[in-house]
Design brief:
globular, four-stranded mixed β-sheet, alpha+beta, four-stranded antiparallel β-sheet, 22 helices
């Protein structure tokens, strides 16, 4: 059946070839197709209107880069069996399968303490059962239980194909061109030494550029203050909905969203009650937006104000500081909000949020980027680089955000 070999045209990498058999079956699987209904960048389109690409597109891009990496490493004499190549490609295709809509928002609101990595693994195990164990090797590599450690590094590490794709793709769709990394060149420079992924010394400038671009994308796109504020509004709206549901208030919600609003789900419940996973895989961005549209006219003032703000892009105001927000300032804002909206102080607290975000772009302890020289010696990028930035990149930057409802004085 010749039509089973698929060629997909991707705006970032051009033609992506998916061989028939296991890899094509994964792409066709309903659990991977669900990622078509989840945006890669969640709410970032509030700042960058072009950021409309999906997690499915990202998974295909990471798969394409993995195919390139395998080919390149093999050409340098690193022996990779066909079965290993297929398994590592399968692992990268499924690495994001456990993401829910606006993934990090849900991790803190409707299901406590369940990470998307946990869910990805549960779903991989499930597909593996359906496919009679064909994914066993892919899962071993994903969990870093396979003896060739460098294969896991390609799926999850400082220079993994996940990062290579999302930095390039997110930069393309947001229009933030400074984030555009030379993924093709970095992949050409990858090598393996003592079962560890390394970079040939010719690639050092590409790595410097990669680390700098990553920092820029984090603060300019992923942690942009307007996106953070918008996300905080969504968290508040969902927490309020959950509180009302807990008091028996009738709320409109799709059956899957309803399950999470009207039940308290933590990690233990999620892992032991199969209904949790069933409902989770029915959730996508549409469930949330549809609920917000209906909630925007709800009689509860907190829920309707937050939901309407989400729908009409009336976003929390944000201030960023290097110091934590004082209790006085929070009290003053809460009081002002409660007077303006004519709600109680505890209700007004839904309109004030003070997240702090800490990020360093390079953590040598985490998984160092090693440079391989022609004489066979290896140096960490921080030593090898003559750019001052590497030492700066490993410094943790902490920012305190104060997000609050815009009110007319």
């Amino acid at each position: 059946m010749s039509y089973e070999r698929k060629i997909i045209n991707d705006p970032v990498f051009g033609f992506i070839n998916i061989p028939k058999g296991l890899l094509y079956d994964i792409v066709q699987h309903p659990l991977l197709q669900r990622l078509n209904r989840i945006k890669q960048l969640g709410l970032s389109s509030v700042v960058y209107p072009g950021a409309q690409h999906t997690r499915f597109q990202h998974s295909l891009g990471a798969f394409y880069l993995m195919s390139e990496a395998i080919q390149n490493l093999s050409s340098k004499g690193n022996f990779i069996f066909d079965s290993e190549a297929e398994a590592v490609q399968a692992a990268i295709l499924m690495h994001d399968i456990g993401h829910g809509p606006f993934s990090h928002v849900l991790e803190n609101t409707i299901a406590q303490g369940v990470s998307h990595e946990d869910i990805s693994l549960m779903l991989m195990e499930r597909i593996n059962k359906e496919m009679n164990g064909q994914l066993t090797l892919a899962i071993q590599i994903f969990k870093d239980e396979y003896h060739k450690k460098f294969l896991h590094q390609l799926v999850s590490g400082q220079l993994d194909m996940d990062r290579m794709d999302y930095l390039r793709r997110d930069s393309f769709y947001t229009g933030v061109t400074e984030g555009n990394i030379g993924s093709a060149r970095i992949i050409k420079m990858l090598n393996v030494k003592e079962d560890h992924l390394v970079v040939d010394s010719k690639g050092i400038y590409s790595i410097e550029n990669f680390l700098t671009s990553r920092r820029l994308m984090y603060w300019q796109v992923y942690l942009h203050k307007t996106s953070v504020a918008y996300e905080r509004m969504l968290i508040s709206a969902l927490l309020r909905a959950k509180e009302l549901a807990g008091h028996g208030v009738e709320l409109f919600a799709s059956p899957a969203l309803r399950f999470f609003l009207y039940n308290n789900i933590n990690k233990e419940t999620f892992c032991s009650n199969p209904d949790c996973l069933e409902n989770f895989i029915r959730l996508d961005d549409n469930d949330i937006w549809t609920a917000l549209k209906v909630w925007s006219t709800h009689s509860d003032k907190v829920l309707s104000t937050l939901s309407l703000g989400m729908i009409n892009r009336n976003i929390f105001k944000v201030e960023i500081s290097t110091e934590p927000v004082s209790e006085e300032r929070k009290k003053e804002l809460t009081l002002h909000t409660s007077q303006q909206l004519n709600i109680t102080l505890s209700e007004a607290s839904y309109f004030i949020s003070t997240p702090s975000i800490e990020k360093n772009m390079y953590d040598p302890a985490d998984d160092s980027i090693d440079i391989l020289y022609n004489d066979g010696s290896i140096k960490n990028i921080a030593e090898a680089s003559d750019m001052l930035n590497i030492s700066l990149l490993s410094k943790k930057v902490k920012k305190y955000y104060l997000c609050y409802q815009r009110l007319h004085r």
